[in-house]
Specification:
The complex is a heterodimer of chains A (197) and B (213). Chain A contains 8 helices and no strands. Chain B has a two-stranded antiparallel ribbon. In chain B, helix 3 packs parallel to helix 6 and helix 4 packs antiparallel against helix 5. The chains are: A mainly alpha (197), B mainly alpha (213).
Chain lengths: 197, 213
């Protein structure tokens, strides 16, 4: 039991820090650069992303194991996973609007952006590729979400400070954000090799 | 819904996709693979080809079917069309380019979530005739391909000292360029460079980079 727990914990750490989605797997960059201008949006986005990733991982694991493998339609996984994610996001959008309008007002904007995002679809695809079991899939989803949140928050706090800096004109906006990310990624390579799975 | 069709030249559409609305350097969307696969020209080129194919086929399909798609359910339909074509590319690559597929397979599957493809289908192909849609998709895919090749050119040359696998520079390579850091750095510098050209010679304001995804 304890060794299983250790494995789950290792998976969580590996997904969140060592194989951080943004800095070493390069997924979700578009949203990473898009919403990291302000701390507030960054936090809202991280909460939404983490929860959607965990639930998407769970849902698609169930569908993959109990529907797709018995029917031998695993080659359709791209189509089916994107369908699951889109349907789930649409459903939670509708439910949230009815049940808690306050939360919807805060996070609804981000939900709409999520359904076609690469890092949400990557989690089920990687889970299926690595043949994780249910708990492993969940901890991978959670780890990836937390890792993404970490990246967003670090970047947002740097970019808020950077507003005041005197950046050469052609580099203002996107280019300097990329170069900053390069430096953060350099720091993150320091984590590599802590855990080898 | 139906827009009166004005005459657009095919060349203009392609040029628009390559320069004015270059997916990576100007619109700053669909960036994920621009770093992940550009460690060698071969990988960058193959992913570029995959995107070019998917983009062209999706635009053509949407252009053909646009009169049959009910506007209210268009986005799910577009997603279905896109994921269908991505599955085709995924299986083709897995069959005929096995070595490369092992390295960049995940990113090929990720094409399904590319904003640029959905955006082209939604903004252009659903409103224009099929031949215009075809050339628009081709141009936009070509722009993506060119951007990937430029980035991977610099990264392979500096990071490994080779071009297309042939040794060119006989000095110690800059290992940092093939690491994640190098990817971000090269894209950032190139983006700044293109902004500079735009400001210096064309009087533009430079790509603000709206973000999105």
């Amino acid at each position: 039991m304890s060794s299983e727990f250790t494995k789950l914990f290792e998976l969580f750490i590996a997904a969140s820090i060592i194989n951080n989605f943004v800095f070493t797997r390069f997924l979700g960059l578009c949203i990473f650069f898009g919403v990291s201008k302000k701390m507030e949006t960054a936090i809202g986005m991280s909460i939404t992303f983490t929860s959607v990733m965990v639930i998407a991982a769970a849902l698609s694991w169930v569908v993959y194991q109990y529907v797709m493998i018995p029917l031998e339609i695993t080659f359709l996984k791209i189509v089916i996973f994107i369908g699951i994610v889109a349907a789930f996001v649409q459903a939670s959008d509708t439910i949230m609007r009815k049940v808690s309008p306050g939360l919807y007002y805060k996070l609804g904007v981000y939900l709409a952006l999520i359904s076609t995002n690469c890092i949400i679809i990557a989690v089920p695809l990687i889970n299926a590729g690595e043949k994780y079991n249910f708990l492993e899939s969940l901890s991978f989803g959670l780890g990836s979400g937390i890792g993404f949140a970490l990246a967003l928050i670090i970047m947002a706090s740097i970019r808020e400070k950077m507003e005041l800096a005197n950046v050469p004109r052609p580099f203002r906006g996107m280019p300097i954000a990329w170069i900053t990310t390069a430096l953060i990624a350099l720091a993150f390579t320091g984590f590599s090799g802590i855990i080898t799975l | 819904m139906e827009v009166p069709e004005e005459k657009i030249s095919y060349l203009q559409l392609i040029k628009n996709g390559v320069f004015k609305e270059n997916t990576i350097f100007r619109l700053v969307i669909s960036l994920c693979p621009s770093i992940a696969v550009t460690t060698s020209i071969k990988n960058g080129f193959l992913l570029g080809i995959a995107v070019l194919f998917v983009q062209t086929m999706v635009n053509t399909t949407v252009g053909l079917l646009r009169n049959f798609i009910h506007p209210r359910i268009r986005i799910p339909i577009f997603m279905l069309i896109i994921s269908g074509w991505v599955s085709v590319v995924d299986m083709l690559m897995a069959a005929y380019a096995r070595e490369t597929y092992k390295e960049i397979g995940l990113y090929i599957q990720i094409i399904v979530a590319f904003a640029s493809i959905l955006a082209r289908a939604e903004m252009f192909a659903s409103k224009h005739r099929v031949d215009y849609s075809f050339f628009d998709g081709f141009g936009s895919g070509l722009g993506f391909l060119i951007a990937l090749v430029i980035i991977s050119f610099f990264r392979e040359l500096l990071g490994k000292g080779t071009l297309l696998g042939y040794s060119i520079v006989h000095a110690k390579p800059l290992l940092i360029m093939v690491m994640p850091t190098g990817g971000f750095l090269v894209v950032g510098l190139l983006m700044g460079f293109f902004n500079w050209i735009d400001m210096r010679f064309y009087g533009g304001k430079g790509a603000g980079g709206a973000g999105g995804h």
